[in-house]
Design a protein that fits this description.
rod-shaped; 188 residues; DNA binding; DNA-binding; sigma factor activity; RNA_pol_sigma_r3/r4-like; 7 helices; two-stranded antiparallel ribbon; sigma factor
C-alpha cells in the first residue's frame, strides 16, 4: 500500500516543502514516528474542519496522539491504527466541546420508554387560542391559521393569501403581536 504523508501536521508549525511518498505495509508500522507521520495530516484536517481554527486543531491533534500513545499497540495493522485514532479523535473532540461549551453537545439516553407518554388532559389552551384567533382581524387570523395550525411554510401561506413572502412575514409578525396583546388583556 502506498500512502501519502507530510513530514508533520499541517499548520503554522509545519515546514514548507512538498509531499513525500512512503511505502507503508498493510501489516503495520515500524515505529511511533511512522504512525505519526502517516496519520497526523488527516487527524489535523479532521480537527481543523470541526473546530475551524489552527491553534485548537493543532492542540487537539497533539492530544489525540498523546492519548493514543500508551494504549495503542504498535503491532496493530494500519486499518486498526487508523480506526483507533479516529475513535480517539472523536473522544478528544467531544471533550473539547464539553470544556468549551460547558456541556455535551449530543446525549442519547440509554433507557428510552417502549410506550409513548400518556396524553395529558387539555387545560383549555386550545379554547383560549381559538378565542384569541376569533378576535383577530381576518388577515391576521388567516396567516396564523395557515402557518401554525396547518403547518404551511411562509411561501405557501403567502401564495394562499395572494401576497408576497415579505408581506406574509410582516402579517405574521403583526398578527403575533396582536394575539399576544389580546392574550395579555384576557378574554371576556
Amino acid at each position: 500500500m502506498v500512502a501519502r504523508s507530510r513530514s508533520g501536521p499541517r499548520g503554522p508549525a509545519a515546514s514548507g516543502g512538498g509531499r513525500e511518498l512512503r511505502l507503508v505495509s498493510g501489516a503495520g508500522y515500524a515505529g511511533w514516528e511512522d504512525v505519526y507521520r502517516d496519520n497526523a495530516g488527516w487527524v489535523y484536517a479532521l480537527m481543523f474542519e470541526k473546530v475551524g481554527n489552527r491553534p485548537d486543531a493543532e492542540d487537539l491533534t497533539a492530544e489525540v496522539f498523546t492519548a493514543a500513545l500508551k494504549p495503542l499497540r504498535i503491532s496493530a495493522t494500519v486499518p486498526e491504527v487508523r480506526a483507533y485514532l479516529r475513535t480517539t479523535a472523536r473522544t478528544v473532540l467531544a471533550g473539547h466541546w464539553r470544556a468549551t461549551l460547558g456541556r455535551e453537545i449530543t446525549v442519547i439516553e440509554d433507557d428510552i420508554p417502549d410506550t409513548p407518554p400518556a396524553r395529558q388532559e387539555d387545560s383549555g389552551s386550545a379554547a383560549r387560542a381559538r378565542a384569541v384567533l376569533d378576535r383577530l382581524p381576518e388577515r391576521y387570523r388567516r396567516i396564523l391559521e395557515l402557518r401554525f395550525l396547518h403547518g404551511m411554510p411562509v411561501r405557501e401561506a403567502a401564495n394562499a393569501l395572494g401576497v408576497t413572502v415579505a408581506n406574509a412575514k410582516v402579517l405574521q409578525h403583526r398578527a403575533l403581536q396582536a394575539a399576544a396583546r389580546l392574550s395579555e388583556e384576557g378574554l371576556p
